[in-house]
Write a structure and sequence with these properties.
47% of the residues lie in helices and 19% in strands. It is an alpha+beta fold and 772 residues long. Helix 6 runs antiparallel to helix 7, helix 15 runs antiparallel to helix 16 and helix 17 crosses helix 19. The radius of gyration is 61 Å and the shape is elongated.
Length: 772
């Protein structure tokens, strides 16, 4: 019994004792006392129960406080503004602050800045929905107290019923480890999927490469490639269409692969006319970066082989060196959703297929090139051979066998030593050495020229065969000589024709010189008549003096000396005429162009004086010897000088001037130019000026300039004409410098014309033909 019960009993006992002393009470009073005792007992009982409940409540409150503070999750209360009203120790620990510092502060302060807008939306949703709401938020990096890495909290919030103002109960759960586990699991799944995809891709590319090298025939390779693609994508049918060009009029199915029992007819080797749906499909495939899934079903129903495909995947295959093609995959029996892995695989296969198509195009081109080479090699109109560095034939064509009279087996067992004329063998070896070393060959190739050699071969029957040989070296990647290619052309007929033409040309040149002499006959006769008249006069005077028996012999001596001089002059004139008209062989030799120019002027000196023409010779400094024949070059100059004088017949005598200019033309040539002040080139056709039988002169043959060009060309020079800036025309030609074999003998060969006396009656050599 408690102290309160004892005090109540003592008080009640005292009350009863006083009533007894006061006398016996009434029954009513007794009953009232009894009821009071009963109520007291009840009150005491209730009081004991209340005390017991209070003890239980105190114990429960202590247990709840422990559970609240040390719960595995955080509990907190926030108001509508998001400020913390109450929080347990676990929640404070999660937020990384003490409980006292957290009370009254905004919860968003401890949330990562990027997630604060989510917290605001979460609080508003919890207030308005009046239902439990959850979200995941990240703590600020410097707020996390448990881990160094960024923490993730799960918030489960609900509005407290009847709270005024509104309060929200929030449960905080640390889900960082769970999120990390989920992330790691996803990464493992992604890695596994990527590994599977890589394995599928790598194995697919390896299978494509193996299929590309399994056969040499391009069609067999294409069929094998499509079977690999169709198997890798587990498609019912695969086809390759070309060309993938919207402007094509029709397309052709290059190859096809299908599973056994695939519905529809085979597609291989079909031609499909171009229509608008197919054109749109091709444009879409060419412009798309990824394969097209389930494109327009109306595009090319024939591609289904007569069976409507349920799922299609189309991609453009674009080789670098060939036309684009269109790769298609059909799922005919069931509908299919193409995964991202399928798209990636098809994209990679299309790229690899493009590379293989490039290789096939190169292989096809090589095959066609080999076939063309064989056909060209065997059917060539000239002899072709391949020769190794040791001189043996590696390959010869049919024409070379026909030229030399040997069979292929006989030629392949021989070298060129027994096939070349002994006199030409050393020259052939030097030519081959130059070609192999690449000296003159590279220089000629840079100039766009092909170096060749004319030599004599000995046929099987012993006959001499003139051939033109052109060789080119073939080197490996390291620059070493692998073999040489030789092209041999039978030029025996041409050589015979050239020999005949040479004889005819020299005869024509002689006729031309004689014709020139005929044109100058009157002037030559006048030129020869002068010394002969002097001889006759001086001889008559000498005879008269002898008849009169003069006492002085000195006048006779002077007369006889003058007779001798005039006779020598007449003899030189006749000798020049004979040398100019004599038949001779034209052989290149070193010539002095200045001396030849003066000789040519001396030959036509009578014409010069008759036409009152002034001739000037200008010679450049350090002039080398040229290469040519002196008589033929003199003929060229005489023709040009006579043409110049004839062009100035209608020009006043004071303007009749001919100028011969001799100077260097680069490092390897000498240029001679003959300029006049005549009518010019306006009445001529420049393209036909040097053609045979073309002339603008009345009574002309048109052979003079043609012979000039033939002579100059034969010595490796060039002749041309152009207007003279001061009026008239300029005819110029070049001759190569003479390259002496023996440097000790560099003097030019002197012809009688060069050695002739060039003094023209005391006038200076540089200005000839001044009008008298």
């Amino acid at each position: 019994m408690t102290r309160f019960d004892q005090a109540s009993d003592a008080q009640l006992t005292r009350l009863l004792a006083e009533l007894e002393r006061a006398g016996s009470g009434s029954d009513e009073l007794t009953r009232l006392v009894h009821e009071l005792q009963v109520h007291q007992i009840e009150l005491e009982q209730q009081n004991r129960e209340l005390l017991a409940v209070r003890a239980v409540l105190e114990e429960s409150r202590e247990r709840y406080a422990d559970l609240y503070d040390f719960a595995p999750v955080g509990y907190l209360s926030i108001n509508a503004a998001g400020r913390i009203q109450d929080i347990n120790l676990t929640g404070a620990k999660l937020l990384g602050q003490s409980r006292d510092r957290l009370i009254g502060r905004a919860l968003s302060t401890y949330i990562a800045p990027d997630d604060r807008r989510f917290l605001k939306a979460h609080v508003a949703d919890a207030i308005h929905s009046q239902a439990c709401r959850s979200c995941e938020l990240r703590l600020r990096p410097d707020t996390a107290a448990i881990r160094e890495e960024l923490q993730t909290l799960r918030l489960e919030s609900a509005l407290e019923a009847g709270s005024t103002p509104a309060r929200i109960r929030v449960i905080l759960s640390d889900i960082t480890e769970r999120k990390q586990a989920e992330h790691e699991r996803r990464q493992r799944d992604i890695a596994a999927a990527a590994a599977e995809s890589r394995h599928r891709l790598v194995s697919g590319l390896e299978r494509l490469s193996a299929a590309a090298t399994a056969a040499f025939d391009p069609q067999a390779v294409l069929n094998a490639l499509l079977r690999v693609v169709q198997d890798l994508l587990r498609a019912d049918r695969a086809w390759l269409l070309s060309p993938c060009a919207p402007d094509a009029t029709e397309v052709h199915i290059l190859a096809e692969a299908a599973v056994p029992g695939c519905p529809g007819e085979p597609l291989f080797d079909r031609t499909i006319p171009m229509d608008d749906p197919l054109r749109r499909l091709i444009r879409s495939a060419l412009s798309a970066s990824d394969p097209l899934q389930d494109p327009d079903p109306s595009a090319v129903p024939m591609l289904g082989g007569g069976f409507a495909p349920r799922s299609r995947l189309i991609v453009a295959v674009c080789p670098e060196g060939d036309r684009p093609s269109l790769l298609g995959l059909h799922q005919c029996r069931v509908e299919r959703t193409w995964s991202e892995d399928d798209i990636t695989l098809v994209r990679a296969l299309a790229g690899r297929l493009a590379d293989i198509l490039d290789n096939l195009a190169v292989r096809r081109a090589l095959t066609e090139s080999e076939e063309r080479f064989r056909a060209t090699f065997e059917q060539a109109a000239v002899g072709i051979c391949h020769r190794n560095p040791q001189g043996f034939f590696l390959r010869v064509n049919r024409k070379l066998c026909d030229i030399l009279g040997y069979t292929q087996e006989e030629l392949l067992a021989r070298t060129c030593r027994g096939l070349v004329h002994p006199e030409d063998y050393d020259g052939l070896m030097q030519y081959i050495a130059r070609i192999v070393e690449g000296t003159s060959y590279d220089r000629d190739r840079d100039r766009g020229e092909t170096q060749s050699l004319e030599l004599r071969h000995i046929g099987k029957s012993g006959q001499t065969i003139w051939c033109n040989l052109t060789m080119a070296p073939v080197r490996d990647s390291s620059g070493c000589l692998s073999y040489s290619i030789g092209v041999i052309e039978d030029i025996s007929a041409r050589k015979l024709l050239e020999e005949r033409e040479s004889k005819h040309r020299h005869a024509l040149f002689r006729v031309g010189r004689i014709s020139t002499m005929g044109e100058m006959s009157s002037a030559i006769a006048h030129e020869v008549a002068q010394p002969l008249m002097g001889i006759s006069t001086y001889a008559g005077g000498a005879l008269e003096r002898l008849d009169s028996a003069p006492t002085e012999v000195e006048p006779l001596r002077l007369a006889l000396r003058e007779i001798s001089r005039l006779a020598s002059r007449a003899g030189r004139i006749i000798e020049r005429i004979r040398d100019f008209s004599r038949q001779h062989a034209s052989t290149p030799r070193p010539i002095d162009l200045e001396a030849i120019s003066r000789a040519a002027v001396g030959m036509i000196e009578p014409e010069i004086r008759t036409n009152a023409v002034k001739v000037e010779i200008r010679v450049g400094a350090d002039l080398p010897f040229a290469s040519g024949d002196p008589v033929e070059i003199e003929q060229v100059l005489i023709n040009l000088l006579i043409n110049g004088m004839e062009a100035m017949r209608d020009v006043p005598p004071t303007f009749r001037r001919l100028c011969i200019t001799i100077e260097r033309a680069g490092a390897e040539q000498v240029r001679v130019a003959v300029s006049d002040r005549g009518v010019g080139l306006d009445q001529t056709d420049p393209s036909r000026l040097f053609d045979p039988f073309y002339t603008t002169k009345e009574g002309g043959t048109g052979l003079g300039l043609s012979m000039c060009r033939t002579i100059v060309d034969s010595y490796g020079g060039r002749i041309w004409a152009k207007p003279n800036p001061g009026g008239g025309a300029v005819f110029a030609f070049t001759l190569p410098n003479h390259l002496p074999v023996n440097t000790t003998d560099q003097s030019p060969a002197k012809s009688p014309a060069i050695l002739a006396d060039r003094k023209l009656d005391g006038r200076p050599d540089t200005a000839i033909g001044d009008p008298q």
